[in-house]
Amino acid sequence: MGLFDKKNCDICGGKIGMMGNRKLDDGNLCKDCANRLSPFFSDRRRSTVADIREQLAYREANRAAVTVFSTTRTLGTGTKVLLDENAGKFMVTAARKLEDENPDVLDFSQVTGCNVDVNESKKELKQRDHEGKEVSYNPPRYVYEYDFYFTIHVNTPYFDEIKFKLNNNTIKVEPPVSGGSFATGSSFTPRSSVSTGGKAAPISKSSPGGKSGPGGQPDVVSQLGAVIGQIASAGQPAAQGVDLARQNIDYRECEALGEEIREALTKVRQDVRESAVAAQAPKQAVTCPSCGASTIPDVQGRCEYCRGAISI
User: Fold this and answer.
1) Which of 112, 157, 164, 235 gets the highest tally of CB atoms within 10 A of its CB?
2) What share of the chain is helix, strand, coil (3-state, %, to 5)?
3) Which DSSP category does 286 fall into?
């Protein structure tokens, strides 16, 4: 069979286009069938046709769980963690129409752990010296970008973690440059913005001569403010990295959200496990207040002989 020969999907039997094949360990999968798999599943290439059939059967059964899912608590903004505390279940999704997306519905007991990862990247700010050359500040200054990722470790046959981004857009933290071009320890207040895929907001910089006033003349007030700023901050190290970011409200909100989700999932998981342990504990005989018999109450808390209610 040639490299570009058309193939059939081993799941639905349909024709697979030239760019539509999703290779399996022992067969082929069309993109439509692949889209029905769990979004958290990532081991397709090592899966057999039988493995995929099994997962698709689970995914179809999951639709019924989505239908009866009743959200009692929502955590997050873009991608959300939805809790059904009455049923002991949760899901993670960004979908508005749950029935269309069919997000995986999991039991609280399937959670094995949670953690937050913060990805930091930085780019050094430069300035122009008196000859127009680009040079570093002293000390160096940086623009920082942060993304928060939350991972829920789970015990399922098809995936072992659910990883999603907490912030909708990258959090940018940048120091506005103050004072003259060669300040040796300028302090600054963090200025933040959220990148939206477009051009980032410009960083304000002062030229060696300060801002210009009317007619192109130097703005004396701006120059005086810059000098005062340099004198007041002389010898003070500039805030950098996480210290700077934690003065940013978006950064702090993501930290708090990650902790809230972690605490919520950890608590409900612990509650479920404690309930399971209690259910498996040996039952103690009590005296029935109605008939006086020594009895072990049933699951409804009733005497096994007279069916009278027993307070435990």
Assistant:
1) 164
2) 30, 25, 45
3) E
User: What DSSP character marks residue 88?
Assistant: T
My answer on whether 233 and 139 are in the same domain is yes
Q: Give the Cα separation of 143 and 200 in Å (integer).
A: 11
Instruction: Report the candidate in 22, 72, 73 with the shortest Cα–Cα distance to residue 46.
Output: 22
Q: What pTM, to 2 d.p., does this model score? A: 0.67
Q: Are 117 and 301 in contact (CB under 8 A)?
A: no
> Where does 47-189 have alpha helices with state H?
49-68, 98-101
| Same-domain status, 77 and 155 | yes
Do the domain assignments include residue 276? no
Name the DSSP letter for residue 214: G
- 193 and 102 together in one domain: yes
Residue 158: inside a domain: yes
pLDDT tens, residue by residue, 13-58 = 999 887 888 899 999 999 999 999 999 999 988 999 999 999 999 9
**Range list of β-strands (E), the chain:** 7-8, 15-16, 22-23, 28-29, 73-75, 80-84, 89-93, 106-107, 111-128, 134-154, 161-165, 171-174, 191-194, 286-287, 294-295
Residue 277 included in any domain: no
pLDDT digits (tens, 9 = 90+) for 274-302: 565 555 656 778 888 888 888 888 877 88
Rounded Cα distance between 65 and 104, Å, is 9
Query: Could you tell me if residue 91 is inside a domain?
Result: yes
